[in-house]
Amino acid sequence: MLKPYNLLENILIDIEKGIKNNVNASGLSKKYGFSEGHLRRLFSFAFKQSIAAYIRSRTLAASLNDLVETDTNIIEIADEYGFEYEQSYIRAFKREFGITPGDLRKTGKIIKIKPPLHLFAENKLGDNVFFGPDIVMVPQFHVIGTYHHMSLSDSRNVIAKQFWNNERMLIKSTVDPQVFIGITRNFDRKTGMSEYIPSLQVKNFKNIPQGFCKDTFETSLCARFRYIGQHHYSDIDSNVVGSMYSAINVINKSSYNNLVKYELLIDKVCFEKIDTKLYDGTFCQMEWYTPVCEKQ
After folding, report:
1. Of 276, 270, 275, whose CA–CA distance to 241 is shortest?
2. How many folded domains does the chain comprise?
3. SS3 for 44-95, per residue?
4. In the prediction, which pLDDT does 232 show?
5. Whether residues 165 and 233 fall in one domain
6. Predicted local confidence at residue 201, as pLDDT
7. What digits encode the pLDDT tens for the residues 189-213?
8. What is the pLDDT of residue 73?
9. Across the strands, what pairs with 157?
């Protein structure tokens, strides 16, 4: 089994090479030895778009060369690029570019295409993959969990496992009992202390179990990072988290990313989110968020 970085890199290469050979999620999943459903979820998590839509966009973009530089019949181009019928190609083309293939030939209109996706050095975290930041708006949400005042040397992994394996079952009215949210607040760089709440999102604060606490993450503009690792989600330890923070610090100092206008409020609050339903025995997928404000 390929490591996450190499796997995603190979899939992107295979898509480009297979555009004229009807490349699809089914064939790619068989080649790499896991289910088509998992491939679709993994690709969507990594690149924030469906693999089917991406393949369709890249196929239509590739067909432009034949369309505008040759006199090949449109029905032949449709067949060359895997469309069963000429009208299927024309409809897909118009949805993608807002113009039919015939009208493009007549007008020479400039159109926008979807370029091929690439992985870069900054996406590599050991053998795993790290994406971001995206700037997103996170609506207000409520959680119930267990409160811990702890230092950087304390094992959050142990605390999170204890919560997940034993304590979360006591929480009622959850939004999704399979989604873990770990909130960190008020990090003190001098002492290394912070507040940590492993939790579940809830609909309301009724029936808080004894010994548990409540918290509300207010609506915030946030930086979102995404991580894919070849391990179980319960094995996200201090080494993984430390590597992520190091990568975030490097990205934060760069002048060529989505954070150029923003300051991370990581010392104030941040949270990790793990949808355990996405784990199929091979890859862990985690999202990490922190609010941002515009730089003065």
Report:
1. 270
2. 2
3. HHHHCCCHHHHHHHHHHHHHHHHHHHCCCCHHHHHHHCCCCCHHHHHHHHHH
4. 92
5. yes
6. 98
7. 899 899 999 999 999 999 999 999 9
8. 96
9. none
pLDDT of residue 23: 96
What is the distance between the alpha carbons of residues 147 and 140, in angstroms, rounded to a whole number? Answer: 20
Task: Give the bridge partners for 293, in sequence order.
Answer: 263
Domain with 195 in it: what CATH number?
3.20.80.10
Phi-psi sector, 22: left (phi>0), alpha (psi -120 to 50), beta = left
Q: Are 206 and 173 in contact (CB under 8 A)?
A: yes
Length of the chain: 296
Residue 115 lies in a domain: no
**Assigned domain for 73 exists:** yes
pLDDT of residue 237: 83
The pLDDT value given to residue 255: 65
The list of the chain residues with pLDDT below 50 reads none
The string of DSSP letters for 236-296 reads --HHHHHHHHHHHHHHHH-SSSTTTTEEE-TTTEEEEEEEGGG--SS-EEEEEEEEEEE--
Confirm if 80 and 22 have CB atoms less than 8 A apart. no
